[in-house]
Amino acid sequence: MMVAVGLKLVSLCLLAALVVIATGAAKPAFASPPPASDVSLDSLPIPRLSGNAWWTVIVRNDPVPGHPTAPAYDVVVRITATANGQEYQQHSATDEPSLGRWEGDSGEWTIPVIQVGESAELIIRPEAFFPRFDQDTPVRLHAVLVEPRYPTRLAGEQRSIETEGWYVRLASGQFRWPGVDASVGVYSANLIPALGTQTTFNVHSVNEFYEYGDRLSVSTRHKSLKQWDVQIKIDLSQGLSFPAGLTPPVGTSFDVESNIWSVGILSGLSGPASIKTWSIPVNVTGVDIPLEHRCLTATVVGATPAFELDQQVRLNDVVTFCLGKRVVSKGAITLFDFFPCVGVTSGPCTGTDTLELIATLQSPTRFLQPEDLVLPVGPDDRITRGGVTVWSTRGQLALKNSQTRLPSSVWSAPFEDLTVTGSDGLNPPGSLTMNLLNNEGKILLTVVTNDTITETADLVTTGYEYPVELVFETMGTYVLTMDIRGTHETAGQLTDTGVYTFHVGPVAELAVMDGGEASPLAAADQTAYTIHAANNGPDAASAALVTLTGVPEGSNSILTDGTYRETSCAGGLCEAEWVLGKQPISDPRPARGQTEYPTLTLLAPAGSAAPDITASIANN
């Protein structure tokens, strides 16, 4: 890749603490290590077929590895309820706990002693707060473990010292537990926009199903399915900006200072009430920033119920979606998915009355245009077949070829034609073979480069789906073009073309960029040039080399990485090399205490001409 740089740059303190534990009775002395207890809390909702849902709080005393076991004494669990920002501490249990005693006035459950391996339960009735809570009001029940008197728990050993449960008082007056989770999703159909244009990110605020850690499965009629006060923070990276006059969906608002999208209420678990989508136009700005580094991040920053203590429901709270091609190195993909778009304009369809070739990623389901996808076939995918080492997709990728969306009652005569080239559009690095497999992995049909699969001739049946293995002869970049065709009973013959890119072997996408910043080391009559190099992956580069032309002769160099030398000069201008050598991908550099990119600054001799210079990078 050629890049015209052309930049004229105008005390530590240690504290020891002695803790004395006052006890009501003498405890025996122990040799090191001391006895230890892992006293922890858990909770579960109790959905009842009639009446109000209840809440079970569970205390356990588990052994601590490497320590003598010991009972835990004077364990206290404090339980509160919060609604509308106000805390309450008076509630009733269904009956006495299995161990200890319950004090409703103070909201404390006291257990004099709990043996190792023993557990105790207390059932709380949320309706005991009635009529304090209005209808359609979410209530958070919170239990926290007060430090047991003996033995002192060891830091890092306890699993959990607090737990929570949520309930909602319905219009009927009954309490139900909420089976919902606030999450967020982001997608953009235009992954490769041109500089100076706009692209669109679809940000989804979603009301998802939640089963209390998959420990309990209950019919939705025993749940509250609503979320309140949902808020999504939307951040843009460098190279992206919001246009003026953003208009969020009706019934929602957007604060331009905090970048928070106030979604409000989501209700239901399906249909429009359970999800709100904002199609946000975003400016693609700036230069020399790879598309893969231009990202939108959406974060759930507010929702009721929040389930703050359950990590399971935090999994989809933050989603970052970057532009550029998607690199998919493992997982299940219907790589050649014949998608009928006759009378359909939603989903992956880019037009109406079309037949489209789509790459469908599984778990979760995502639709990609083939051109937006890069599939690396790495060193771990090398196999020996027939005494020859080749590269196969069967190791990390589970690929499929599918026409199951084309029922024979409507579609006929589908076929696909394959052509393979290199990244330059000329000859590929080697041959490519596609094997169609059965579910046991046996090869049913082998198709070689520049072949055609005609369904009626080769596969007999219509609407097929087969696992696919792609076998590459040698390393390099392969570009697979697939032309598809099918005849619809009313729309007639429809065609489409998909272009897939495979990086076989260690492959690095290298870039060189104009640094864009002035050098403080340049004198007033000096011209400075700053150049950044980047490795956008997916693999490390083994021998990165930047070649420069038009460099003023005798320029001084300042480098963060590698070495620099002038190779030949004429007329006061030189060709030069910046030898970087092995270069890992750029993203982790700041975490390692390095500059964001390898950087070369050239200071031209004072008073010399200041021409543009040109730089290119390659992995040699």
Describe the fold and architecture:
The structure is a single chain. This protein is mostly beta strands and 620 residues long. It has four domains: 38-178, Sandwich (Immunoglobulin-like); 180-324, Immunoglobulins (Immunoglobulin-like, Sandwich), CATH 2.60.40; 327-504, no CATH class; 508-619, Mu homology domain, subdomain B (Immunoglobulin-like), CATH 2.60.40. It contains one helix and 45 strands. The strands form eight sheets. Strands 24, 25, 26, 28, 29, 30, 32, 33 and 35 form a nine-stranded mixed β-sheet that branches. Strand 36 and strand 37 form a beta hairpin. The radius of gyration is 32 Å and the shape is globular.
List the helices and strands and how they pair.
Blueprint: E1 2-4, E2 38-46, E3 54-62, E4 72-83, E5 86-88, E6 92-93, E7 101-103, E8 108-114, E9 119-125, E10 137-146, E11 162-169, E12 175-178, E13 180-187, E14 198-209, E15 223-224, E16 226-236, E17 240-241, E18 253-255, E19 260-267, E20 275-284, E21 295-304, E22 318-322, E23 326-327, E24 331-341, E25 354-361, E26 366-368, E27 373-377, E28 382-385, E29 388-392, E30 397-402, E31 411-422, E32 432-437, E33 443-448, E34 452-454, H1 455-459, E35 465-472, E36 476-488, E37 492-504, E38 508-514, E39 528-538, E40 541-552, E41 556-559, E42 563-570, E43 573-583, E44 599-603, E45 614-619
Parallel strand pairs: 12-15, 23-27, 24-30, 27-37
Antiparallel strand pairs: 1-45, 2-3, 3-9, 4-5, 4-8, 4-10, 6-9, 7-8, 10-11, 11-12, 13-14, 14-20, 16-19, 16-21, 17-20, 18-19, 21-22, 24-25, 25-26, 28-29, 29-35, 30-35, 31-34, 31-36, 32-33, 32-35, 36-37, 38-39, 39-44, 40-43, 40-45, 41-44, 42-43
